[in-house]
Amino acid sequence: MDLAYICEWEKWPKSTHCPSGPLACTWSCRNLIAFTTDLRSDDQDLTRMIHILDTEHPWDVHSIRSEHSEAITCLEWDQSGSRLLSADADGQIKCWSMADHLANSWESPVGSVVEGDPIVALSWLHNGVKLALHVEKSGASSFGEKFSRVKFSPSLTLFGGKPMEGWIAVTVSGLVTVSLLKPSGQVLTSTESLCRLRGRVALADIAFTGGGNIVVATADGSSASPVQLYKVCVSVVNEKCRIDTELLPSLFMRCTTDLSRRDRLPAITHLKFLARDMSEQVLLCASSQTSSVVECWSLRKEGLPVNNIFQQLSPAVGDKQPTILKWRILSATNDLDRVSAVALPKLPISLTNTDLKVASDTQFYPGLGLALAFHDGSVHIVHRLSLQTMAIFYSSAAPRPIDEPALKRPRTTGPAVHFKAMQLSWTSLALVGIDNHGRGSPLRPGHSFLRDGTSLGMLRELMVVIRIWGLLKPSCLPVYTATSDTQDSMSLLFRLLTKLWICCRDEGPTSEPDEALVDECCLLPSQLLIPSLDWLPVSDGLVSRLQPKQPLRLHFGKAPALPGSSTGLQLDGLIRAPGQPKMDHLRRLHLGAYPTEACKACTRCGCVTMLKSPNKTTAVKQWEQRWIKNCLCGGLWWRMPLSYP
User: Fold this and answer.
1) Three-state secondary structure call for residue 59
2) Distance between CA atoms of residues 109 and 107, nearest Å
3) Which region is the signal sequence (predicted)?
4) Residue 400 pLDDT greater than 80, yes or no
5) Alpha-carbon 45 to chain mean position
6) Are the CB atoms for 379 and 372 separated by under 8 Å?
7) Hey, is 432 helix, strand or coil?
8) pLDDT tens for residues 574-604?
């Protein structure tokens, strides 16, 4: 994992920035990142901001004045990635949704409130859709091989079995509040105490069971107190929301059983389920001012021994041994530096017998790791189950060896910049962190297409399929404009592609292309004429331009000059000169050099289309409705300024 880029505010006066305030961050399944900052005005009033950006264009951030009166404590995307929940320290919860399906246009039509009671945990109700990641097939090219559908029940269903939408939150006073969104738009809200004896809840997290129940884990912040767990059942009775709670087995952190260590680690600072769909595994972190200890616990069913006397009185008891739920520790770390943030995978993993051995080894798969950020600015990637450190990263340096002495690490003067919030992507292949200056720093693996043997092999297979189709129906073959009538252009391209594939295929050793192959590729433009491609969308995203070991430094609100975006590195047909006529790529219409109609663009491929349809025929309008939410490539729409370049 390499540092891809750092995006920061270009000019941010110190008088308006509040680095001491809490930060929240969340990453949607559609690659939208939302995070919070607080801005102080001249009269010392604080404005609670929510910033939304796409990972392809992090500089193009959309900022929302949330109108929260207190600090925002929680942010949570729904499973579709189109709605966002925000909650604050005054008990107010807002539900944000896209206006006109645009990723930079948001509105908050509904919400709920538990007045004066800060929200410490927030989650959408489960919709019954659960995917499991197969770690042994994480390198497969097919999505169906990597993930599988797991049987799971939604938290609440409507008539006919359709999942009912809504959210659940936990307050600092020990209340659980549930809000349900009815199809009519009405919001049903109910609040109940987690237990009869209410106490302070400093930390909480929410998970779901396969049977449709909800599990809430809470802690009062003291390592001397137990971590309490509760089962929450939600139902609708007589058009009213009903909440039933039940106490589950609790646990004490192992590091606090020793009195000397309890005094040295007085506070529980992080409490997280390993995944929203895994209510039987929890991650705990106890900290002091300088150090932390992380523990992973699992809830298991264990047999309850029965005295021989009772077995003789009731022989049926001996046939089926009674069981009891108990928390067992899976792994624990030694003393670490003070942890500032934790990022966990969003998808549960599917482990076979072979993978159980992997869990205790040093081999690492995406989805099996979690990230720990520390106050010295470092990020540790540790194993999900064994908590073994796999790699150490710094926000402005290359990965460092695990066994590097602490004395050799660079020391900075003054307080170190560290991550206060982190999130892993839904595939666990990328990590974003928000530091105490409000900057975003995604980490993701870099790649080069010419070194990607899998993609090159897929292109070769596609060319073979196209050739076979051409034998059955010649109109399926592409048309090439060649300088020679006797040249077989498709065979020429296939031969060059095969030579490149041989250099980097997975089955054999990789090698650099020889000079003869490079010369053949250089002669290709003189053998084939490339027509003007001005009708194709041009994406200015940065994923395809990332360079390994060369992180980009970006600024919010300012489009950068990315590597590889200069004129000399682009195809002639893809260059856009200023004042060149623009295209509506969805409708194949010319918009002119300076369009006057409001347009939207795809955040992934750069496809541009008008917001309002000029067509009046029913058939065309129905076709356009297919792309009202997403582009043809599946990307999100982003409203463009009226006079875009």
Assistant:
1) strand
2) 6
3) none
4) no
5) 32
6) yes
7) strand
8) 344 555 677 888 888 888 878 888 999 998 8
